[in-house]
Amino acid sequence: MPINGKLYELYQESEKVEEYRQSQGKLDVCEGCTVWCYLIPSFFMGVDKYWWLNQVTYASEFLARKRFLQRA
Length: 72
What we know:
The protein is mostly helical. It has helices at residues 7-13, 15-23, 49-71.
């Protein structure tokens, strides 16, 4: 999707962006994933136990995928 300098407008008004937003966590590629992609923006509101949980989960998933790719 071309942005053409209108990122804010696309985010606020684009039907395609809304389709992507609604599909977060529901795509086939998301099955079994433990990274909360759809929640990540909310973790920038402050550092609390959920922020730390997200960091640990993200690091764990990243390392698991890295190990998997090394074996493949």
